[in-house]
């Protein structure tokens, strides 16, 4: 990365929009802006697409996490006469990075090319979620293929994994629910479906006889509504954490960071229900892109490139150029950026990767108006915005026999009494081209208040699913035979633990900041914030509106237009 | 496919469809010309291919192809490769036709026909089927064909059972899969394949179907399967003897001549013919009852080769009820003596159920017949009145116990697992109290329990069953009559479940020389049941009920007086079963609806079975042909009866014309509508 080949100077040097960073948010914005005719220059300091949403080989992932990759650029040349130059700094999104290799052969040449490991895992797409809709709308679906996540489970400290009874067929086949529980759960699903149908009908015509959930219930906490149904605690927990994918313990109102209202709970169930069966090739609600989540930002970038966006990778920017004439309040004084090559590029607007900031020492000399222009780049106290502990394990074997791609959720308190939030685990296999054939990649995440708490939670989930690590030289077949339950567990070959700070996207007039990956399983909130940012930038223009061409609609009729490998 | 709303055609689609039709008509007429001229050239066959690929429903084209194939094969039978090529082409055409419409009867049938030739490999067929069954999991054509292929390939039934597991697992609203499962299990259980014993497998099936029912009680497929399972649990394949008259170890008194009405004792019987009926009641219709399969060991002379007759519709050789007439007055005087009669049923094989199962366990019963020489003549020609004069029956219950029916089905069934399975189901379905189907299933289960459990606990459930059916009648008016009928069955089972219950309905008829009468009046019965326990009845009051028909009464071979007044009988055809009652002398069908709804003759080619058939004209028929044609249904019933008293008032049909007709058809009649006839 250090030996940058010399770049020819960029031409043209003026754009409507410059975007730095190729994460999911930035890529959506770039594709949307390009397809509406905006001229866009899309830069990334890294030699790969995706930024914090990238899928990388193990060494690249390691070095990205350690260096945060956006290393400070070489010292800037002196101020140009026309502009005020403000140096940029990089803040670290990652902390407590801890990487361990238990089987060094994993880093061998023959393996290294076969890994595509996500930085922002565990993450999947719901077949009916906004990211899929956006891909269909933009046409970026042509560049990605998906596969179904075969199963989802709810686990506890016993190590047992129970399937999430998320559909009629799954409830029928479930072995752990009693008959009355099955009846109650199905009855609840039917109520939700009737409510959704009634809601859909009433948007076109008023249908008074339809079954709907009462308005006062919609505003009550979802957990209370479930109890009122009445659903037993076991089923409540499955719905809240296994289907609605809630993070915090809903039964503990004081400590709960995200007490879910019934309205939102029903919306999440609706997403899940409509995801099942949206595409005939998909087995369940969840799909995952072949070659990793990094494919998603790349697909949007390709779409942007088709629409005329110019891409330059391995191109950090070192400084912002502001108008010296600070009385020009309307433009906020922003003029352009200085690239690491020293070239100055100009644009109306700028969107920056969430880890690009302005150092406080650079701020001190600025006028109030200049400070206002740079408002979104001033680092706020990161802790207030939440942290996500993430873990990656490369394992030999599978956490569940005969199943390769699976989601496991540990609801709050299921692993240990102090467990504050749900821990989600996603196992992916070589069928998704993310690892060699005999291995699986496991992603772990949980929201947390501090690094230690988050990592402790992930380690607890790891020890439940995976055999404790044995030093490499002792690892022989004879050593593990005494306990069959333990012996059946997979072996960990490589592990990464890190805590990621969550930065929300922010609109700041001419300079905006894109959102970092969040703690959710899906891209829904990220897409939502990208769409909002786009509307603010472009003045509430609809994303990809001209893309609904005739050939696109025929595609929709086939299979909804998303390639899902059976 | 299911659940796809039909869309109205757009103009351009309509135009396309018209163009397609025009093209099709052209092909069709060309094809028909080929067919009629028996042209089987390549071009002609290709034309039929084209036609079928557009319209797989053109069954004439399939038949034409069969002829064409036969034609081609007749020339080259020696060359197996060529034969295979020809047949493979047929398979290909079928496959592309099925892609067009996988519910085409003709296409599936053609495929069967090709495979039956035996020259094609069947290996591909299951793979092809998997594709079709993925497209539409319930497609019964595919399932049908699957059974055909499975038989051809000798694929094991266990494997197929597993396939139904998968199909049901992915969507349990699949009637076809459940149905196939029941077919496979029936077969596996019948031949007792590897571990396929009912007491092992049926409980597992209950578990499976419970999951379907409790997951979605609104889905019908599971309930159907549950009903099938219940049937497997309750019914035994092998036929059993349920009851008989006379019953085992009973003592009957026989008189010469007939006391009109009945006797003061339940066990007394008299007849002019000097014979008494011996009645066998089986739990299912059987055939093959004869003097070789049922042997009689008795000192009563002249009964060596008894004639056994099925009590059933004409020409049917199977029936639940079989009757033979034993003579007790023969040339030798035998009065004042007691005779032991030993009956062995199923002594030699031959009694077979309509499903083909043998009556295997032979059974023997013995009774004593006391033959008296006096006839109770006191009320010989008096009118039988149902109005009043009934006293509570005071007989000691041992008298009734002697009538107790065999009730020995338990002994032969491995009933323990059945009782357990049903008890478990009952507990479970008590938890589904709010659905109609839940209530109905619970009622059926309780009834099943009553049928296979011990006498002692029976009565407890009947009230619950009756309540359930009452609820259902109120809840689900569209199936009211079904529930009503089931309610009647349950009520009659309750009445006949114990001697105490039954004796509450037995009365002495004061005006009738204290003869015993079973009164089941005013019970709002709509159906007759439990007749097997009432074989002894000679006088029966069913008035003020809601009966539509007398079906079931044919088993009561001793019946001589029957009151059906104030019911819902609509025609004499509904009384058809009475023709089997040779002892019937008194019949009251007053205040019914006979004649109210005349047969709408415009809807039939002939107004009566007599109008164009060459029925043997008997005396009455030739005397009054127009009345016989008009009252043909009454004619058929009354002609075979030997009535002395008939009450018909209060029916639309009643009137002078009908009365005069009756007098001709029933010449032995003494009382008509309460008036003594002048002879």
Automatic annotation (TrEMBL), chain A:
<feature type="compositionally biased region" description="Acidic residues">
    <location>
        <begin position="553"/>
        <end position="566"/>
    </location>
</feature>
<dbReference type="GO" id="GO:0005096">
    <property type="term" value="F:GTPase activator activity"/>
</dbReference>
<keyword id="KW-0963">Cytoplasm</keyword>
<comment type="similarity">
    <text>Belongs to the Rab GDI family.</text>
</comment>
<dbReference type="GO" id="GO:0006886">
    <property type="term" value="P:intracellular protein transport"/>
</dbReference>
<dbReference type="GO" id="GO:0005968">
    <property type="term" value="C:Rab-protein geranylgeranyltransferase complex"/>
</dbReference>
<comment type="function">
    <text>Substrate-binding subunit of the Rab geranylgeranyltransferase (GGTase) complex. Binds unprenylated Rab proteins.</text>
</comment>
<dbReference type="InterPro" id="IPR036188">
    <property type="entry name" value="FAD/NAD-bd_sf"/>
</dbReference>
<keyword id="KW-0343">GTPase activation</keyword>
<dbReference type="GO" id="GO:0007264">
    <property type="term" value="P:small GTPase-mediated signal transduction"/>
</dbReference>
<dbReference type="GO" id="GO:0016192">
    <property type="term" value="P:vesicle-mediated transport"/>
</dbReference>
<dbReference type="GO" id="GO:0005092">
    <property type="term" value="F:GDP-dissociation inhibitor activity"/>
</dbReference>
<dbReference type="InterPro" id="IPR001738">
    <property type="entry name" value="Rab_escort"/>
</dbReference>
<protein>
    <recommendedName>
        <fullName>Rab escort protein 1</fullName>
    </recommendedName>
</protein>
<dbReference type="Pfam" id="PF00996">
    <property type="entry name" value="GDI"/>
</dbReference>
<dbReference type="InterPro" id="IPR018203">
    <property type="entry name" value="GDP_dissociation_inhibitor"/>
</dbReference>
<dbReference type="GO" id="GO:0005634">
    <property type="term" value="C:nucleus"/>
</dbReference>
<dbReference type="GO" id="GO:0005829">
    <property type="term" value="C:cytosol"/>
</dbReference>
<feature type="region of interest" description="Disordered">
    <location>
        <begin position="541"/>
        <end position="566"/>
    </location>
</feature>
TrEMBL record, chain B:
<comment type="function">
    <text>Catalyzes the transfer of a geranyl-geranyl moiety from geranyl-geranyl pyrophosphate to cysteines occuring in specific C-terminal amino acid sequences.</text>
</comment>
<comment type="similarity">
    <text>Belongs to the protein prenyltransferase subunit alpha family.</text>
</comment>
<protein>
    <recommendedName>
        <fullName>Geranylgeranyl transferase type-2 subunit alpha</fullName>
        <ecNumber>2.5.1.60</ecNumber>
    </recommendedName>
</protein>
<dbReference type="InterPro" id="IPR001611">
    <property type="entry name" value="Leu-rich_rpt"/>
</dbReference>
<dbReference type="Pfam" id="PF01239">
    <property type="entry name" value="PPTA"/>
</dbReference>
<keyword id="KW-0637">Prenyltransferase</keyword>
<dbReference type="InterPro" id="IPR032675">
    <property type="entry name" value="LRR_dom_sf"/>
</dbReference>
<dbReference type="GO" id="GO:0004663">
    <property type="term" value="F:Rab geranylgeranyltransferase activity"/>
</dbReference>
<keyword id="KW-0808">Transferase</keyword>
<dbReference type="InterPro" id="IPR002088">
    <property type="entry name" value="Prenyl_trans_a"/>
</dbReference>
<keyword id="KW-0677">Repeat</keyword>
<dbReference type="GO" id="GO:0097354">
    <property type="term" value="P:prenylation"/>
</dbReference>
